[in-house]
Each structure stands twice: as structure tokens, then as C-alpha cells.
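Chapter summary example.
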Amino acid sequence: MPEKTNKTIYVLNGSNMNMLGTREPEKYGTATLADVEKLCRDTAAPYGIAIEFRQSNHEGVVVDSIHEAFAKKADGIAINAAGFTTTSISIMDALLAVKIPVIEVHMTNIHARESFRHNSYMSKAAKGIIAGFGTDSYRLAIIGLAGIIGAKAN
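The structure predicted for these 154 residues follows.
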């Protein structure tokens, strides 16, 4: 049984991520968002880290989740802002305001895709970026945040 560390990571997902499993499987695979949530929880468990997992198609709800992470003293945020990545100054500002370690997550390599996807507002607030590993991008983000926040696997 892992030692309890009382650490929490928020995993936030933006627009259209609820369509995983059916949306462009040639790019995103067939795993569902529920599969990604289970992967995040399973990855965090050996570190004694709790996961708060959220998805919204509404920019303000994502901002509210970031504010909640701050209010509840979360230790880290992994964010796949999806379509908001290239458009949301509000989400970027929220991430910058809370000063919580952030890892930006993308299932695909955004730099190998259309040029409009190359500019990420989230990157301005992120300690690191993980892209191109499919659902494993989330696993790598959790492991990276565990290291940043000093959680050790048992």
C-alpha cells in the first residue's frame, strides 16, 4: 500500500476531449476519456497522489477548475487544453495567477501538425510540455509532476 502523501494533482481537459475514442481515431486512438482518467489514477497511486480529473467544453469552467485547484492547495496541474491551447489567454492567465506547477499535455505532436497549433498559450505557464505519446502523454505528465512536487513511488 503506498504511503499517503496528501498531494493532489488536477488533470484538466479542454474542448472535445469528451469525444476521445470516437474523434479522429487515426490521430487520437480509441481510448476514451474514462480510459485516460483510469490511466492517470493508476499512475498516481504508487506516489500516493490523489487525482482530480475534469473535462469541459467551456473555457470559463476550465478557469474555475484552475481557481479551485489553487483554493484547495493542489500540488500540480496537468492540462490538455485541447482547442483552447491556441486561443485562451484566460486559461493562461489563470495558470500564471495560481503559481502551481503545470505540465502541458498533448496526445499528438502539435508541432508536426497544422501551423496554427504551434503557438500554445499554455506553454507560457508550463514547467514542461509532453506531446506526441498518445494517452501515455498523461502518464508521463503525472510522473513528471510527481518528481516536481517531491512525491516518491512506493
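To summarize the output: Strands lie at 7-15, 49-55, 76-82, 102-106, 128-131.
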